[in-house]
Specification:
Layout lengths: L2 H43 L6 H14 L2 E3 L12 E4 L20 E4 L2 E3 L2
Antiparallel strand pairs: 1-4, 2-3
């Protein structure tokens, strides 16, 4: 291959690397936007009268709609996709159809998710 062609190839490689980096940046920004929307949807669902199990089901639905996989589900026997802790529960509150949110409850969510590549 002539030396001039190698110089052109080097320039093309640089342009391709820059294009790939820009595409990855846009993908990351898009994913952050989707995650932000998911958080907003979960936040709007948290209201008096809803069960923590209903919040979990919504969380799983939203995670899967983005192509994600709920990391907690079945981890060491954990029965839910997210943790919903209410008031004095520090972390890892297990969602339940019997745990109904009341006015004034303080709710914390932990919803780790992975993606398939």
């Amino acid at each position: 291959m002539p030396v001039d062609s190698l110089a052109g190839l080097s320039g093309l490689t640089k342009v391709l690397k820059e294009a790939i980096a820009e595409a990855e940046k846009l993908t990351a920004e898009s994913q952050l936007s989707e995650i932000s929307e998911t958080i907003k949807e979960l936040e709007e669902a948290i209201r008096p009268g809803i069960s923590t199990l209903d919040i979990d089901r919504l969380g799983e639905k939203l995670i899967r709609s983005l192509g994600g996989i709920p990391n907690f589900l079945h981890y060491n026997g954990y029965p839910a996709s997210i943790c919903v802790s209410v008031n004095d529960e520090v972390v890892h509150g297990i969602p339940s159809k019997h745990r109904i949110l009341q006015e004034g409850d303080i709710v914390s969510l932990d919803a780790p998710a992975g993606v398939r590549r």
